[in-house]
Amino acid sequence: MNTIVIKNYSRLKPTLFLLPSIFLVLIVVLLYQQDALSVDKYIQIQKNAFIFLNSKLALFPKTMFNLTQLGDEIVLISFLGIFIIYAPKMWECLISASLISCIICTSLKEIFSVPRPAAVFDHDRFVIIGKALTGHNSLPSGHSITVFTVLTVLLFAFMPQRLNYKILWCIFIIGAGLILVFTRVGVGAHYPLDVIIGGLIGYISGLLGVFINEKYPIWTWINNKRYYPIIILFFLFCCISLVNRLLDDHLIIFYLSLITLVISLYRIINVYVKK
């Protein structure tokens, strides 16, 4: 499996950055045409779309609240833990991509300082699922960046070679990503453009992680069983974090991610002991 991932990553071309970059430029141009490059106008032009989407998506509150947790990196990567054994190359790129996305996300939130919906609109105008977020850090959506960063690394790691399978695989990954990021609108945490821009940035971050790791393979120690104790400690930390979240919210997604992570942890310990 790791051989497939290595080959797939080696085939990637820089032209893959072109499409998301074009979309980001188009969004900026459209905002400029609407005179919406200021914070207030950015919010106002999305007000109706936000309230409409929020009202429709909030009809499924449990689904929204569970799925939106996958924007938390600890929850999402718990489902990918087993790949440390079978496809460590993917994890090497995932670490690089996650660090890049974290830097970009933190920087842009600080620069734009866009207030979240709950800080602007009356709470009786839309549905809030979970805790009401009122900070000035709406743009871009961090959950959306995380989702598409991870999914992009996954997308190209296991990209099929046959065209028809490749198309289906892309549709599945992108479709899953869009569903997950728009849960942020459903729970009342973000405006539509926040999650779209966040998704595009996440895609770019994922690609950057792959390309940087191809040139500077600093995480190759992950494939060395000698260093498995570091990974085991990290996964134990993730388990504790998930348990704490379960104590606060008994969500099925937390149970599933914890079970998956424990299975991965068991397999990694088993491999390490037999090394």
UniProtKB/TrEMBL annotation:
The keyword Ribonucleoprotein does not apply. Keywords: Membrane, Transmembrane, Transmembrane helix. It holds the Pfam family PAP2. InterPro entries: PAP2/HPO, PAP2/HPO_sf. SMART domains: acidPPc. Residues 93-210 form the Phosphatidic acid phosphatase type 2/haloperoxidase domain. The chain crosses the membrane at residues 12-32, 67-86, 141-160, 167-189, 195-214, 226-246, 252-273. PANTHER family: AT30094P, SPHINGOSINE-1-PHOSPHATE PHOSPHOHYDROLASE. This is Phosphatase PAP2 family protein.
